[in-house]
Amino acid sequence: MNEEKLLLEKVEGLGEDIIKRLKEMGIETALDLAVCLPDELLDIVGGNRSGAAYLINQARIHLVKNGIINEGFITAKEVLERRKKIRYCTTGSRALDGLLGGGIETAAVTEVYGAYSSGKSQLCHTLSVLCQLPPEERGLGGGAIYIDTEGGFRAERVREIAIARGLEPDTILKNILYARVYNVPHLEFIIRSLGAYIRKHGIKLIIVDSIIGLFRSEFIGREFLSERQQRLNIMISKLRNIAEMYDIAVVITNQVQTSPNIIIGDPNVPAGGNILSHGSTYRIYLRRLGKYRIATIIDSPYHPFSEVKFLITEAGISDE
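^ thats the sequence. predicted structure below, dont judge the formating
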């Protein structure tokens, strides 16, 4: 990708003051600006929503003119041809890969939710290793960004998985960028700044573990529900735009809450409400059953409802 064509200074309609404020908030290129949402941009440049939308549109027009992105209608046949170019990252389990049609998909947001010890973070640790495998070995051939909101990341576990799979652990560890995030504004800033790291470090996978934890602890009470959902919506929409624009895989983990309306069956439902259900491309429910973990496809544009079982071993996510 031509870095010069991505310069904010090349976008028409951006003054020096706006460019300075954008860069201070982690928006460094026209592509970063193009994946923004108007409400997100308002907090940075001020003004009104239509003015923010204008700046985003100017960035997209610039990218279209320079052949970096496409704009307008295409045929369904062209969509199908593009879909054939989608890449998949193995989860480490052929059963789970089969459930997902090949693995974790690029240009999509895959949400994994479940109760404590259901295997969410273990899956994330495994993916951060396996995404570095070359495509011919069912990897994505690039590094990972691991955004940790709950303090659950363990570099020792990554090292163990790498060694168990015959990989050079130090190389694997160097290709994972880690960020410990402590509050919602910090998380928003990190996600807003992802573009620069994706380009500089050849990132092919972004992990947010978990997407909802900080929101649940900081926005307590019904009076804050509307703001919480609005900011969560901006975040998940931004991640989806990043996945599509950069053609990378995005995995987010989510917590569960008990629904009092469910009397018969599993009372656990994903937290976050309709915002996350609509924002995620795929939703996978993990639960523990003895030594096994069970993965169930809950929502997908084309996968049928189905489930498989897998194990967690020294090598991470595995089959028997």
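The radius of gyration is 20 Å.
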